[in-house]
Fold:
Amino acid sequence: MADREDRVPVWGLWILIALGALQLAAWLASGGVTLGRTALVAVVIAWIYLLLLAALVTRRLRGLRHRLAQHEKAHRATHDVVDSLQLQNEMLQIIARAPDVTVAFQSLAPRITRLVPSDRLGLALLSEDGREFQTFTARTPDESRRAPPRPEVVFKVEGTALGHVVRSREPLLINDTRESLEGYLDVTVLSGSGFYSALLVPLISKGRAVGTLNFVSRRPGAFTLGQTEPVQSIVEILAVAWLVQQLQLSLGRFRTMEVMTEVTLSIAAEINSALQTVIGHCELMRREYAGERLARDLDTVVGQSQRIVGLLERMRATAHERLQDVAATVKRDNEAGSLGGGR
Structure:
């Protein structure tokens, strides 16, 4: 529209010059007025000047139009960057307030669907052992007040499109669920529910895929791979938030296990001390009182006491091993989700 408005005065000027030239030619052809050579030269110079002026104005306006288009493009790019930063700021605030990633997802769902329109928005999160997905669906504000939402369907990693996306760490576009990827269970479920196209975007933090953000539609061919760009920052923040949440859970388990281990070791030490006392007294009684029946009874007591000592030793070793396993899990999650994400 702006380009058309800029051309109006230029073409109008050229039209006026052409009409003037036609009038001058008609005037000269009619012979009604005899012009002197000086006057004719002046008229020709004037028209040449007007032609040059029109050419300069045209060139000037084209340059101005080009610069205006560049400024408008830069303004739109800046506006998009500002909108993206505002959205990321809102997301960070929501995730900071939400006690659970799934609760934050419910709050972010209206903003996400404005970026990529869809009939249903879903979130699939990989379990800690990496063998299955827990899936969640965005709900209305009233339904999303429960915290945290419960997973609706659990899918195995093997034999699903979700698992394919997590393994490849690349978005997956499904134009028609009735014809594509029929061997995948989750795609079959979508098709059976009346959803005929889908766009699955992986949640990645530091090269580690921890789930997917899923857009589905009842219309075939509703999505394009280009629609992953507007939600890229969203999936990265969700991935980092999920890793941080897993880290917090691991830290909680580590602290609980640490306390339980300390209590176990303390109790085991007390029991072992008491058993050693029992064993010592049995040995003294064996020396002071001679008797075959008493000796058998003392052997039984000593044998069971030593058996309990062995069980306590195994219990201490198991507690140490479990504590080391939890510490290793905490260290791995900390390395994966420490301070930010990104590929």
User: Anything to note?
Assistant: The chain has seven helices and six strands. Residues 1-8, 140-146, 337-343 have pLDDT under 50 and may be disordered.
